[in-house]
Amino acid sequence: MAKEYDVVVLGGGTGGYVAAIRAAQKGLTVAVVEKDRVGGTCLHRGCIPSKALLRSAEVLQTVRKAAEFGIEAPEPTFSFIKAQERKQGIVDQLESGIQQLFKKGKIDLYEGRGTILGPSIFSPTAGTISVEFNDGAENEMLIPKNLIIATGSKPRALNGLAFDEEFVLSSDGALQLESLPESIIIVGGGVIGMEWASMLHDFGVQVTVVEYSDRILPTEDKDISKELNRLYKKKKIKIVTSAEVQADTYKKTADGVEIKVLVKGEEQTFTASKMLVSVGRSANVENIGLENTDIIVDKGVIQVTDNFQTKESHMYAVGDCIGGLQLAHVAMEEGIIAAEHISGNPQPAINYNHVPRCTYTSPEIASVGITEEQAKAEGFDVKTGKFFFRGIGKALVYGESDGFIKVVADKKTNDLLGVFMIGPHVTDMISEAALAHVLDAAPFEIGNTIHPHPTLAEAFGEAALAVDGLAIHG
Fold first, then answer.
1. HEC secondary structure over 244-297
2. Which of 151, 366, 436, 438 is the most buried (most CB within 10 A)?
3. Separation between Cα atoms, residue 116 and residue 154, nearest integer Å
4. Do 167 and 173 meet the contact criterion of CB atoms below 8 Å apart?
5. Which of left, alpha, beta for 236 (phi over 0: left; psi -120 to 50: alpha)?
6. Which of 405, 413, 331, 395 lies closest to 368, judged by CA?
7. Sign of the C-alpha dihedral, residues 44, 50, 55, 61?
8. What pLDDT shows up at residue 124?
9. Strand 243-252 relative to strand 257-263: parallel, antiparallel, unpaired?
10. Angle, CA 287 vertex, CA 281 and CA 290 arms, to 5°
11. What angle (nearest 5°) sits at the alpha carbon of residue 443, between those of residues 400 and 404?
12. CA 333, chain centre distance (Å)
């Protein structure tokens, strides 16, 4: 049995389901093949569940500080099981919403594993999808005029540290914990590792972070990394940098795990109840039939053009499977551009330098553009401005005055090069900076934009004024 569609999307994650919705909005017939659950990694094993748990951690810390706000309350007790139940309820609600959007757009959902076939009796060109249904029903063939590959990515393991999801956890496995460990070693001080460090510490877990680079969050501005490192040490989160994990020394113990680490050439031993390995993600490009096509895979990711076409012009790829920033909001935009191109309405190429990046630690981190170090390396004569949240009334009212906003600009043209934030609710504030970056705004334009008082956003205006030494409250 075979069914024809204008577009078949292989993978129902953020890039895939958004591409499907846009294609349907353009009047195309659309099917999505998903072997797990629509929403993908972001909804089920990433963005949403982790942020739900981070919110529980934030509320717990707020309650513990209630006396500072004049509220006398007994020491709170925390139920990790109830936090997990709340997390799952949010995930289920959002998944149901996606399914309703599919119904609204008359998008057919095939629940099973899809494999790309080569030229066959069904089609003279590669791209027919064979669907192996999860429920064991007879395979079905889908014949798309156009195919969008959106198969996402999975946590990357280290050689010798295979995930068993009991003692050595991936970020996927950590989200399914039924109880909190007494202690944990987090291998990897990037975005995922630092979010888990923040959350687990706030839940009362003893946390040690081991990072190969000479600083945590190595892709962020150095001032941001330095500030988060300072605040984490103040919380008594142990940070070990310039550290190379000796995976072949890993062993289970009566109390959990043990591993040796080379720290600046000196061997040290670390023990904990569990270990979380968060050293990046690998694209899902195996076992989907790419060998039956002319699609090029280089360095583990699918190669595409600016409109996300592969070497097979009727096949597109978006999201984590093509590498890049591996962010949900980027995958969504890539999916939209691919669907628009298929519908005959090509869009401008994405400028990835304009993409905002968020880290949901406590305090939060958000940024857009290039760092001061990158700007100097690219030959810019830079000027910077920085403003601390302790000078903002709303931050003091909230009781969250740690952190700052840093603005990096080109001294010659006065164009904005980058904005870097660490502090309360900055992930909700970075969009103003992203728009300013897209519009090549100058710091004085941002600074002379009236920001309402009292708000946290005043800090951005002050940081922009600080570039030229004109901050009012700094």
1. EEEEEEEEECCCCEEEEEEECCEEEEEEECEEEECCCEEECCCCCCHHHCCCCE
2. 151
3. 20
4. no
5. left
6. 405
7. positive
8. 87
9. antiparallel
10. 95
11. 20
12. 14
* Residue percentage of the chain with pLDDT more than 70: 100
Tokens 């150095």, located at residue: 222
> In which band, very low, low, confident or very high, does the pLDDT at 121 lie, cut at 50, 70 and 90?
confident
245-281: pLDDT as tens digits: 999 999 999 999 999 999 998 999 999 999 999 999 9
Do residues 359 and 426 touch, judged by C-beta distance below 8 A?
A: no
Q: Which of 201, 329, 354, 453 is catalytic?
A: 453
pLDDT level of residue 474 (50, 70, 90 thresholds) = confident
Q: Can you tell me the distance from the alpha carbon of 461 to that of 321, in angstroms, rounded to the nearest whole number?
A: 38
Is 437 in the active site? no
pTM, to two decimals: 0.95
CA dihedral 177, 182, 186, 191 (to 10 degrees): 60
Mean pLDDT of the region 142-171: 96
Taking Cα atoms as reference points, which of 409, 133, 414, 171 lies closest to residue 277? 171
Question: Are 129 and 114 a contacting pair, CB within 8 Å?
Answer: yes
Tokens of 93: 């609600």
CA separation, residue 325 to residues 175, 281, 322, 352 (Å): 22, 11, 9, 8
Cα–Cα distances in Å, from 204 out to 78, 180, 197, 210? 10, 9, 11, 19
